[in-house]
Design a protein that fits this description.
The complex is a heterodimer of chains A (346) and B (129). With 346 residues, chain A is an alpha+beta fold. Chain A has helices at residues 16-121, 125-152, 164-181, 201-223, 252-255, 275-285, 316-328, 333-338, and strands spanning 160-162, 184-189, 197-199, 226-234, 238-245, 289-294, 300-307. Classes of the chains: A alpha+beta (346), B alpha/beta (129).
Chain lengths: 346, 129
């Protein structure tokens, strides 16, 4: 019994006390055996519980992951819904704008040309000055209408294989001297493995120039100095160029409106509010997206995303475009010589 | 008188009277013989009566469009140089590709000096500086 055999029973046939003792020991052995088996049971139960807990922990992890994924998906969905709403709104605005702009072109031509004719015949200097200012203001109206049209224009970009790093570099080269004069540092973090894509170099240059100018103005006005970080990155199917400034940032309530035509935070006469609308139009026509991340007081980041298209994957109608331009370029020489500056950023 | 130096004739076709007026007056001042028409049909009828060296042609007009006038002029009066003068730049590539007959496209609004420069260039007038 001492070596653990709790089934053994002590038999004592004689002696009253000895028999009682034996019975006690035997009862104790029964109790011990019972609690030992219970102990085994508990042990088993405990290990089962441990197992269950492990399973539970695992499913908790999985659930957590699922929740995070779900949240990310919802965020993506919300973002693409926002983009959809934005692009539909801009399409409607574009249609309206191009209709109005076309209607304005005839009277603007008549007013501007009328002033030109008057200048030839009027001898009185005061009248001449008045007519000159009339002509000048008409030119201003013409420029606004042209910018509006270039925002709304359905003309697709010319498509050639372009490295966005080259576009960014050209923009920096163009402005670095003046930026530095205004105490603006430019840090470029260019992805060395950035793939090329089918795009319109000049149009993208216009967009990047405009985004740089906006950041520059914002930083200069806020604290007369600043740092602009221009970064290029790529994922499997998208190229991304971001412009991060440490200016005053953009209040949340106007972030959504900032690409609308004529929406401007600048003083009257300093900007027409068309620059970003034009940028938006250009990026849309590249099949991409222009988005803004900003909090008031914490600077702003403008993000341009465009798809990676190699020369075999560009949609057919867009491939048609450069062919057309090459073939009939001569038709537009007259128009372009007159309209240089039409694409100018504000 | 050398024939090359004879007065060149131009017809200005536009449904907008103000534009028609300023363009024709500017060309007149340059010494060209200018006729105007307010629509496509009127322009074609005028071209039947008289030869024009050059035509400034609007595209969006009620009735006959500028493109139709252009194509008819190309068939019947190929010696008339046609320059499109249009307020609408929103043409599809297909539309423009079909209009090879036009010598050039000018978009409204443009300076009158631009109009007269094109006229002198096309007609190679001797008094063009």
């Amino acid at each position: 019994m001492c070596s653990g055999n709790l089934r053994h029973r002590i038999r004592v046939e004689s002696g009253g006390d000895a028999r009682k003792l034996a019975k006690l020991i035997n009862d104790m052995a029964v109790g011990l055996a019972d609690s030992k088996s219970k102990n085994e049971l508990y042990k088993q139960r405990l290990s089962e519980l441990y197992e269950q807990r492990e399973k539970y922990d695992l499913s908790k992890e999985l659930l957590k992951k699922e929740i995070i994924e779900r949240q990310r998906a919802e965020e993506e969905l919300r973002k693409s819904q926002d983009q959809l709403i934005q692009s539909e709104k801009m399409a409607a605005v574009g249609q309206l704008v191009s209709g109005v702009a076309h209607e304005l072109n005839n009277p603007l031509m008549a007013i501007s040309a009328g002033a030109e004719l008057m200048l030839r015949y009027v001898k009185d200097q005061t009248i001449q000055e008045d007519v000159e200012s009339l002509h000048k203001d008409t030119q201003r109206a013409i420029t606004i209408v042209r910018n509006l049209l270039s925002f709304a224009r359905k003309k697709n970009p010319e498509r050639k294989l372009v490295s966005l790093n080259d576009v960014v570099q050209s923009v920096i080269d163009l402005q670095i001297y003046e930026l530095n004069l205004d105490n603006i540092d430019v840090i470029s973090e260019l992805d060395p493995d950035l793939p090329k894509t089918m795009a319109d170099f000049q149009q993208l240059q216009q967009v990047f120039l405009n985004l740089t100018l906006n950041a520059w103005q914002a930083m200069k006005e806020a604290h007369n100095r600043g740092t602009l970080v221009i970064r290029t990155q790529h994922s499997e199917d998208k190229l991304r160029v971001s412009f991060t400034d440490d200016g005053p940032g953009i209040p949340k309530k106007i972030v959504g409106r900032i690409v609308e035509p004529f929406f401007t935070t600048k003083d009257v006469g300093k900007g027409t509010g068309l620059g970003l609308s034009i940028c938006y139009g250009i990026i849309q026509r590249h099949g991409g997206n222009l988005s803004i991340q900003s909090k008031a007081g914490e600077g702003a980041t403008f993000i341009v995303e465009i798809p990676i298209w190699d020369d075999t994957h560009a949609p057919l109608d867009e491939v048609d475009q450069p062919m057309f331009l090459d073939k009939y370029d001569n038709l537009f020489i007259l128009e372009e010589s007159h309209q240089k500056g039409r694409e100018e950023v504000e | 008188v050398n024939i090359a130096q004879a007065t060149k004739s131009i017809i200005v076709v536009d449904d907008d009277p103000s534009v028609r007026d300023v363009v024709s007056r500017a060309l007149n001042a340059e010494g060209f013989d200018v006729t105007t028409a307010s629509g496509g049909l009127e322009a074609l009828l005028a071209a039947e009566r008289q030869h024009f060296d050059m035509m400034f042609l609007d595209i969006r007009m009620p009735g006959m469009s500028g493109f139709e006038v252009l194509s008819r002029m190309g068939k019947k009066h190929p010696r008339t140089v046609v320059v499109m003068l249009t307020a609408s730049t929103g043409m599809s590539p297909q539309e423009l590709a079909n209009q090879k007959e036009a010598f050039a496209y000018l978009t409204k609004p443009c300076d009158l000096t631009e109009v007269t420069r094109v006229a002198h260039q096309v007609l190679k007038s001797d008094d063009w500086e």
